[in-house]
Amino acid sequence: MTAADQALQMTRLAAEAAVEKKGRDLVAFDVSEQLAITDVFLVVTGTSDRQVGAIVDAITESMRDELGLSPARREGDKENRWVLLDYLDIVIHVQHEEERVYYALERLWADCPEIDLEIEEQE
User: Which of 114, 119, 95 has the alpha carbon at shortest distance from 14?
Assistant: First the structure.
């Protein structure tokens, strides 16, 4: 089983929105084989609390405007250090760079296939 086409579309749309707000080090994993609750984890880094908030806002606006979707769950946006957006098919983690290094989510999901986001990060 691999991530559904809709999950891939959502992931790429969220990644585009994150990159527009200068999100960095984007990585997406197909976790559909390991988890029954979601297909994709997308991880994005922001360099400040303010940027994490801007990335989260851009993603939620893009998902709402383009696909008519709102997150089923949203956590961590008071501190903007690690914000989780749960869209059921995909779970998005927007992390401050310090949290990204400390928690290293990529290590936890390293055995899962990485998804080509088909985007270029901005410098």
Answer: 119
> Does residue 117 form part of some domain?
no
CATH number of the CATH domain containing 10:
3.30.460.10
β-pairing, 90-96 vs 82-86, is antiparallel
Residue 119 lies in a domain: no
Report if pTM > 0.85: yes
DSSP 77: T
pLDDT of residue 122: 64
The per-type count for the chain, helices as H runs and strands as E runs, is 4, 5
Report the mean per-residue pLDDT for the chain. 93
Task: Assess contact for 58 and 17: CB atoms under 8 A.
Answer: yes
Angle of helix 5-20 relative to helix 49-67, nearest 10 degrees? 140
Per-residue pLDDT band at 70 (split at 50, 70, 90): very high
Q: Is residue 52 in a domain?
A: yes
